[in-house]
Amino acid sequence: MERLLLWPLATPYRFRYVRRIVSLFRQPRRTTLRKHRTTTSSGDFEPRCKLSTKDRAIMSEPFRPYEKLVEISIFGKKFQVPERNSLLRCFQFVSPETIPYGRFCWNQDCQYCRVTCQLPDDDEGREMLSCKFIVMPGMEVTEMSQELKWCLRSKLPSDATVSK
Predict the structure, then answer these.
(1) Rama region for 36: left / alpha / beta (φ>0; ψ in -120 to 50; rest)
(2) Strands 140-144 and 114-118, sheet pairing
(3) CA-angle at 31, arms to 30 and 32, nearest 5°
(4) What is the pLDDT of residues 50-107, one digit of tens each?
């Protein structure tokens, strides 16, 4: 009787089926990426194509490269911000803990970054999107959207009203 019960399990079909199931649960073979990595003197692996520290710093930083800080005014309060960056990036420089988490699209779609600025060489203020406008020394931000006010509420003067 026992022999009859073992016989159906020992068919070649059953062996093939078991082999497929077992192969699903095997761990993949370890591959060595020797052609893409080099070994250091301490035995560690590191990539062959290394970036210099200067290139890594530029790539990891959200701001465009700048040499000096320029002064702008937001609701009458003076701030030092990096040159050659968009106004929204400069707001991020002023408040790095809130601006990255705002509802900004950074590409002119959402309109949440709308500001009114007085440029040093103009007589009247201009309405613009801060994600597209490159900062200029001496510019004054006179109005901004509620989203920007909310994100910059800790840095703005107390008389700038923020409503939810």
Answers:
(1) alpha
(2) antiparallel
(3) 120
(4) 545 555 444 457 878 888 999 999 999 999 999 999 999 999 999 999 998 889 988 8
